[in-house]
Fold Resolvase.
Amino acid sequence: MMPALPGPGVSFSAAQLPVAIDYPAALALRQMALIQDELPKYLLAPEVSALLHYVPDLHRKMLLATLWNTGARINEALALTRGDFSLAPPYPFVQLATLKQRTEKAARTAGRAPAGSQAHRLVPLSDHHYVSQLQMMVATLKIPLERRNKRTGKIEKARIWEITDRTVRTWLSEAVEAAAADGVTFS
């Protein structure tokens, strides 16, 4: 799902982009990645920005921005709580629980983690605009650190996004459809 962009030879000035990137080179690398079936499809920074423009609210936009800024899988992002984020300068980061493990390699590794434990990875959050938007969302929506589980009655860490992975895919589809209505296509 890539948007149709200007062809080769089109350049952007530093004033048009938040960071200096070699856009033609990035586009060429993505085209090479598309040839390989085992590699995931991905969007470039300007394309992500265009897609986020078509997301209607802050809650949805921040989930999709979290996927982009952290490289998290959908279910890894949905498992995040406020406690997983350290947004203090100068080095804000998020701790992601790695939900997908390669079991065949883990099963034969001598120093593997004990059963029931979960691997985590720390991801630096280098986009200051994303960090401030995340802080604003948490404050605006009053997302708590903990909440009572309706089924068990126990107090648990509150997930930031209490939705399913299917809902996230629906939100993405809706954004792509809204973009298509404006003539921005993703392939």
Notes: Residues 165-181 form the longest helix (17 residues). Confidence is low (pLDDT under 50) at residues 1-14. Helices lie at 23-35, 45-53, 58-70, 74-78, 103-108, 128-140, 165-181. The domain at 42-181 is CATH 1.10.443.10 (hpI Integrase; Chain A).
